[in-house]
Amino acid sequence: MHRATTTGERLYFRVAKNVGCMLLSFRTTMRLLTHNMLTSHVKGVTNGYPLKLQAENIKVMSVDFNPEFVARMIPKLEWQALVQAAESIGHLGDLPRELMPEYESNEEFLKMAHHVLMEVEVIEGNLECPETGRKFPIKNGIPNMLLNEDEV
Amino acid sequence: MASGRRPEHQAPPEVFYNEEEARKYTSNSRMIQIQQELTERAVEMLNLPEDTPCYLLDLGCGSGLSGEFLTDQDHMWVGMDISANMLDVAQEREVEGDLLLSDMGQGMCFRPGTFDGVISISAIQWLCNADKKSHNPPKRLYKFFSTLYACMARGARAVLQLYPENSDQLELITTQAMKAGFSGGVVIDFPNSTRAKKFFLVLFAGGTMTKLPKALGTDDRAHQAHFTDTRERGKGKPRKSVKKSRDWIMEKKERRRRQGKEVRPDSRYTGRKRSNKF
User: Fold this and answer.
1) Is A34 close to B147, i.e. CB distance below 8 A?
2) DSSP letters for B224-245
3) Residue bearing the bigger pLDDT, B191 or B277
4) Which of residues 142-161 of B touch A (CB under 8 A)?
């Protein structure tokens, strides 16, 4: 019984700490990594990829660099879509347009990819379905992917 | 679930999880603890490769409590929820994952083969309700499972913890999952306890057939009879011989001899049937 109480207290303090941080800054969340994975799921769409990214408000955060994770994610990415998205919001930087061979061991390249994938975040904007032109609004860093009843 | 009554019966998820309900998930330490324990167990059953950062999906992430645990394990995650208020709380908590406002029943909006694993804590049972006129639970479940299958990497697992209302609901969910191509089944932790009992739907997206993880709190030997298909004869108490048979007569004579009574000696005629002539 006593042990349970202490765990509860510890959790409570953790929460209290988080609420404290909330007052200082809002962590916003729509990375280009996520954008690269998103497709349109409107009814009848055959190729809803890539979603056109229109950003009104962008934030660059610093995130811990994890080379292993970035290297693991690169084969899953659509590189052209990433380049396109990064270019459309003006954060392409020095990222090469073509995926280079043996990128796993190229730390400089992984760092650039990490910056574009993990650190550039869209706060306000729109995601547009390339086929139907349906817009999914991004508010406060959260894309709203809810469909209307006639789009399911 | 603090009220003890089923929240699914009260309102649709986007309405039920309003600001007040969402706050509970940051202030109620009991809720937080339960959520964390369930997440820990779900991640254990995902069976992810060790020391490899993975890309995971959290369905019904709510305020991101389960996501925090994933972050602690060095995984990157994307959270989906239908309640905007819950996601607002998640953002205030500064969770590391990316958040999406989306309805599971409308299907996943991800490219094929995206995720290394999927977890969900207490969310799937909401899909069994028809909250709008246009909702058809089996169809929504099928849409959910089929699109989920597509966005998982081959051989990836989905561990979905749920509170089914009854066995029909559980069957509805598993049927739709199997129809969508998943293999796997339900793991029930602590099946003999009403309170601690937890249902996990463990699904495999393609890959080789794998065994379901073992449920906690089950000791086969303690609760089940040992099964063998061998027939055992002649063990235990010897059978009594049939009445009026030769064996029975011999036994009776022996017994009466032991009692010191006068008994005719045994011969080859003892217990023999009389011939018809007589």
Assistant:
1) no
2) S---------S-SSPPPPPTTS
3) B191
4) 143, 147
Q: Which residues of B10-47 are buried (b: 16+ CB within 10 A; e: fewer)?
A: eebbbebbeeebbebbbebbebbbbbbebbebbbebbe
- From the list B92, B101, B110, the residue facing A39 with the nearest CB is B110
Between chains, do A41 and B33 touch, taking CB under 8 Å as contact? no
Respond yes or no on whether the N-terminal peptide bond of residue A50 is cis (omega within 30° of 0).
yes
**B113 in contact with A, Cβ within 8 Å:** yes
Binary contact (B109, A41; C-beta < 8 A): yes
Give the residue extent of every domain in chain A.
Answer: 29-146
Q: For residue A18, list chain B residues with Cβ-Cβ distance below 8 A.
A: 26, 92-94
Cβ of B103 within 8 Å of Cβ of A147? The answer is: yes
Class of A29-146 per CATH? Answer: mainly beta
Could you report the per-residue pLDDT of A78-102, keeping only the tens digit for each?
999 999 999 999 888 888 888 888 8
Name the CATH topology of B7-207: Rossmann fold (3.40.50)
Domain locations in chain B as residue ranges: 7-207
Q: State if pTM tops 0.90.
A: no
Beta strand B98-101 pairing with A142-143: unpaired
pLDDT tens-digit readout, B127-142:
998 988 889 999 999 9
